[in-house]
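Everyone, study these two lines:
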Amino acid sequence: EPLSAATPLLSIRRVPEFLQAPTADRRLRNDLSPAIAALPEGSCVAVSEHGRQLLELEANAPMVPASAQKLLTGLAVLHRLGSGGVLTTRVLGESYPVDGVLEGDLWIVGGGDPLLMTAPYADRFDDPRPYTGLEGLAQMVTEAGVRVVEGSVVGDESRYDSVRYLGTWPDRFKPGWSIQSGPLSALSVNDGFFQWDLVNTAASLSVPADDPPENAARIFDDLLEVEGVVIRQRPDSGTTPVSSGMVSLAEVPSAPASALVEQMLVDSDNTTAELLVKELGTFGGEQGTTVRGLSTILEILTEAGHPVEGAVPHDGSGLDPDNRVTCGLLTSVLNDRDFGDLLVNSLPVAGDRGTMKKRFVGTAGEGRVRAKTGTLRNVSSLAGVVDTAGGRRLAFALISNGDLPFEIRDLHEDVVLAMLSYPSGPPIESLGPRPVGDPFGVTTSGG
């Protein structure tokens, strides 16, 4: 006589997460209720698992996101460039050097690399970050045989427009005030700063260059001279002549797009974010502009199936107080089918790195929460994922706008901490068919 299986193949015990969900979801909502009730008016909340919505509060209401805006920028870049795409800085001449002498000018042509830096500038940062060393590019030029440049080193930023700071940004984010970004340029070295503090890395303490491509050319000129190259004329900026006679002398790629996005998110780097937006605006052969880039972001999000209703991007960094996103859009982006996992793994980690290094310290959320923070006047946001004690990963978004209490960050953290117990549904062993011979669920001992 054939043996009977204790649990049939089609038993609900074989799909435990599905069966646990109603009870676990209800308990999650109950666990979150006190923390959510403490949030100020003008808040939105969304919590999901693999795209399945678990909890929503005003999740479709357009809100000012602050730096959580960078999640949209990052996902769009990954979709358009792929994880391995690079931005290349090139050095061109009107001819190859003859006996070490390069006739005419030497052109350094920007490809939009936001992390093109010199070692002294990059080494100031406490946490190591990927960067493209300009010193290495200078060495490549000498390896190409250049010993004398009869003309100038000329910087070309024509891949993007020359708008340095967005006109819609508050004045306090522009030069002369507490600037939060370097001057935007397709050829930006050391974030486009002419002078910078050797210890304090705050952008507000740095002096932006009036002419970023000329500043880049000047720095490159100095590095070439360190390598022993003689340059007859002063550095300058301009547009590379459209000539079939231009030849490549050297080039250097940026870090891959995945690393650029990670650096932008971990450090909440506004300059990187805005330059990546302009790069998105170059597709189709156009010059990169913020307006074209923002349009591309919405196109990419729409094509990927994300709910963009109510989303109004004005920049890529979140500095613009006129940006609008929804909590539902942010959790959808974090669950993106193609690049969601990569985006999440690029986020700052609570108690460990980036802008989350001092968040959730000493709590159960330390090391379990990956999130993008956001802060402006009257704006606080937190969006990312939490790895629960039950081995599940929940995506969440929290945004509060308006007259915010001093402890708003703590209130947001309380909501996230309340997610850690998920799922707290009934034990799997209590679900579905009982053991064979025990139709009423009564366990008996033989004897």
Remarks:
- Residues 1-15, 425-447 have pLDDT under 50 and may be disordered.
- The CA atoms of residues 265 and 347 lie 6 Å apart.
